[in-house]
Design goal:
Blueprint: H1 5-12, H2 20-30, H3 36-44, H4 47-57, H5 71-78, H6 80-92, H7 106-126, H8 133-141, H9 144-152, H10 154-167, H11 171-179, H12 183-193, H13 198-206, H14 217-232, H15 248-254, H16 261-279
């Protein structure tokens, strides 16, 4: 009997839960009476998370001209909404474990995901999009559904990987063949259980779509383009062997030209190692 996406998410709902610090931070940020110092107090209660945030604030990811010494200073410089996105990202990597190594190398998985986040953020910044950290979060989480499949449906996942290699097809396509759904749909439903906003969930569901109409076209276009760029750079891997085709309308909407790719790759490589050390610390 085959498993549906709803059955899979119901099974893992209690396995994957974000830490209390994240939920408390959301409550504070959504409270109109909260101040920057209130946000700082929530973060400072989690020493490990505070250390990561300070490390990231002082990295080339931001490139602030002077050193950030305190969490309150980091919150002021980065902003409340942006801080929530960073906390979401730094919390996710720690809740996945026991993924079969024969299916995916977790170091390569996170390298690919973090590189997608860095790339999406850089592309969004070129477009002068607000709150570019949400684009980093999109990239970081875009393949999270694949970890759920690898961990909880390992036999079917192995069959999809084998079929992709044998027929030289993209893995999301063989996921649909074997399972009847793909990792993008699983990731979408998992993020919804975490009550993350639709602006984050929906582009992740659509990042392999070449025909569907996205409710958030800019976010979807930037995420899709970042995924293709990073795959072409061979920067890590989430299990995919081949580079997904670039959808021309997404490329146009992302606002990139061919001449922008070499300096973009240089900047990705410049930021990547520092961000990896921070997120996976």
């Amino acid at each position: 009997m085959s498993t549906t996406v709803a059955q899979l998410i119901a099974k893992v709902r209690t396995v994957y839960s974000l830490p209390q610090t994240f939920h408390r931070l959301q409550e504070v940020v959504q409270n109109p009476d909260s101040s920057m110092s209130d946000i700082g107090e929530v973060l400072m209660a989690d020493q490990a998370l505070s250390a990561r945030i300070l490390q990231l604030a002082n990295s080339s990811f931001y490139g602030f001209p002077s050193r950030i010494e305190t969490i309150s200073h980091a919150v002021t410089m980065i902003g409340a909404e942006q801080m929530v996105a960073l906390v979401q990202g730094t919390c996710v990597a720690s809740i996945f474990s026991r993924v079969p190594r024969e299916l995916v190398n977790m170091e390569l998985f996170w390298r690919h995901s973090i590189a997608c986040g860095v790339t999406a953020r850089l592309v969004a910044a070129r477009r002068r999009e607000p709150n570019t950290e949400r684009f980093f979060l999109l990239g970081l989480l875009h393949d999270i559904g694949r970890l759920v499949i690898f961990q909880h449906l390992p036999e079917q996942a192995a069959a999809a990987v084998e079929l992709a290699g044998r027929e030289q097809r993209l893995l999301f396509q063989t996921e649909n063949t074997i399972l009847g759904f793909d990792h993008a749909t699983v990731g979408y439903d998992l993020l919804r259980t975490w009550k993350l906003p639709a602006r984050l969930c929906e582009p992740i569901k659509m990042h392999h779509s070449y025909t569907g109409s996205s409710l958030y076209p800019i976010e979807t276009a930037i995420l899709h383009t970042a995924d293709v760029i990073v795959s072409a750079m061979r920067c890590g891997s989430s299990g995919e062997r081949y580079v997904p085709p670039l959808h021309a309308p997404h490329w146009d909407l992302a606002g990139l030209g061919a001449e922008m790719i070499p300096p973009l790759e240089k900047e990705i490589n410049r930021q990547l190692e520092e961000v990896i050390k921070t997120i996976l610390a």
